[in-house]
Amino acid sequence: MKHKLEIIVGVIIILFIAVFLYTSSFNPNAEFAGSDTVGSAVVSELTGVPEDDIHPLIPQWAPPSGEIEACLFALQAAFGGIILGLGFGYLLGQRKTL
Known about the structure:
It contains 3 helices and no strands. By secondary structure, the protein is mainly alpha-helical. The chain folds into 2 domains: 1-60, no CATH class; 63-98. It is extended. The protein starts with a helix and ends with a helix.
């Protein structure tokens, strides 16, 4: 097969989308909470301490505005894209030299 890797990646993406749509259809009114809120709720339930009294061990830095937060997120995505591009480019370059 000439395009075996592309077919495998396509099948994985389709399966991921199918699982996401299947699980999200059970409760269409569900809110997607982050791990911080879910974790503090579980700790509160197990220890009996109210959620308001639970604080993180390491202080968290909050960006001063939403624009800076969006900029940092875009910068993180750009670095990830560059690393993926370099990795795939290297692999394709190695394949062509053989």
